[in-house]
Amino acid sequence: MTEKLSDETRGPLLEPLFATGWEMVEGRDAIKKTFVFKNFVEAFGWMTRVAIWAEKWDHHPEWFNVYKTVDVVLSTHDVGGISALDAKLARKMDNLAE
Ligand code: HBI
Question: Is residue 68 part of a domain?
């Protein structure tokens, strides 16, 4: 069962993400990041590759794409906050955006 990360366990999981540009969403237990690509095709191609992992892991982002920019918010709806799945998907997003 997926669980919301406790205050004690979230540090080691989230600190590395904060270092790569992820931030807490104000007023919500969620993390956010804006990815900017060379153009729309690069942005959408990245979204497509992320989508395949999201479907494989049954864990989906909240994202908004305008041209070459993708605004992403990650949280686990089932537990009402950030879980390890969000950290895993965030790492995958960073890796696929390199
Ligand atoms: N994605 N971000 C996120 N949070 C969820 O709770 C979630 C999901 N994708 C699929 C999913 N839950 C399903 O497991 C449940 O809706 C049944």
Answer: yes
Q: How far is CA 33 from CA 1, 3, 62, 69, in A?
A: 26, 22, 11, 11
Which residue's alpha carbon is nearest to atom 13 within ligand 1?
58
Confidence of residue 2 (pLDDT cuts 50, 70, 90): confident
Domain that holds residue 41: 7-14+21-97
CATH number at residue 69: 3.30.1360.20
Is 58 touching ligand 1 by the criterion CB < 6 Å? yes
Q: Is 88 in the pocket of ligand 1 (CB under 6 A)?
A: no
Whose C-alpha lies nearest to ligand 1, atom 7? 59
Interface confidence (ipTM) of the complex: 0.94
